[in-house]
Design a protein that fits this description.
The structure is a homotetramer. With about 120 residues, the first copy, chain A, is mainly α. Chain A contains five helices and two strands. Chains in contact: A-B, C-D. The structure holds a DNA duplex (15 and 15 nucleotides).
DNA sequence: GTGGTCTAGACCACC
DNA sequence: GTGGTCTAGACCACA
């Protein structure tokens, strides 16, 4: 697998797993690959995969059965969206609005753009 | 220089030049490196640099004096911002609002966030 | 066997024996290992085991038939629970309530927690 | 330093740091030892110390200044007590009440004991 | 110097 | 087999 240099590998694994779950390649309550399996598959040290799984577990996206493996939590989808939502509000959105300021784009312009998109999707 | 794989190299050179101008490393009316010079510096084929310069010229950011070289246009800064502004409105903003929709972030939430940032910068 | 450093070994042997009896590994009226046997088994000086047996005898948990050995008393289980009960009330509980105070946990919170557990075990 | 075997070393380091802060050996806003320093002092791999610091940071007890080190957060004391409180309510208290049940200690007995201690501390 | 990340390899308890 | 912890040693960006 290919990793970007500007982001920690374990964070990219977190995103990979979230994507698999959102795309329903890995269904709710399914067992996901063991840290060793996934590590071998994407050519990364199992410890690094473990770190990603720890973060995912802590966010309530996967859970662990001792001696068995990690499983996709029932509320995984909600947890992922919740996490992404928080990131969106604290990072993406502020950056977006700062760029808007920098480019002298008025709030009104953005709002009308928003409404255009809203209407576009209704059709 | 390092290039990303997910974008044409000549477009990355365009951005590089724009950045140099915005950061005022290359001042208005200054001569910029020749396609051969820049090509050697960033280890890229002069033809690729030429393609970038053509696009920049077409956007009114640089202009050419035959037999002498390329120069930063007087209105370069405005042109760049104008280009960025268009890109912002046609690509970034729609993507941003689609993400907002996907994450169930309301317009009101975005507006209040915008105003927070506005006030924050005043202090 | 592994012993903790923060408690006298003979007291840890007392607990070991009590545990064996509570778990019914050693049944009521059964003969338990001689001080030499147990001493060898857990790699401890027979004198230390003797000290533990004396304490257990004094608490009415085991009794001695001269020349034969030690036996689990009929009322052993009751005696052990009585001992544990006293320890619980004089040491564990006060410590527990002091910790509760320290952490600003109200009596009401504890009571409702108690009732939760009570109901939980009925199901 | 001495570590118990029945608990992960990094968790024991977490408790060590919390203790230092509660005892005010390390004051609020003070810089605490670097992962390398503490690692050397207690003869533990810096990575293990790092893991402890990560957990402490995540719980809002310490924070990090890039390239400088870790510092005791202003709300450290509150965060520690909050963490301990949660642990008390979800682990210690249930265990305590189960033991009470096992030893046939009535709720009324516990309550009167609680009130005794309450009065005792007032004098 | 600092934290942060990653690897390789080891050992453990649990199932 | 599984996760979980720990070590030793390496490299990086940041200050």
């Amino acid at each position: 697998m290919q990793f970007t240099n500007d982001k920690a590998i374990y964070l990219q694994i977190v995103e990979l797993v979230e994507e698999k779950i959102l795309q329903q390649e890995w269904s709710l309550e399914d067992r996901i690959p063991s840290v060793r399996e996934l590590g071998a598959a994407i050519e990364v040290n199992p410890n690094t995969v473990m770190r990603a799984y720890e973060k995912l577990q802590q966010e309530g996206i996967i859970y662990n059965k001792r001696g068995i493996g990690f499983f996709v939590a029932t509320q995984a989808r909600d947890s992922i969206l919740k996490t992404k939502r928080r990131n969106f509000l604290t990072h993406e959105a502020p950056l977006f609005f700062k760029t808007a300021k920098l480019l002298s784009v008025e709030l009104e312009t953005l709002i009308s753009l928003y409404k255009q998109i809203e209407n576009h999707e209704k059709n």
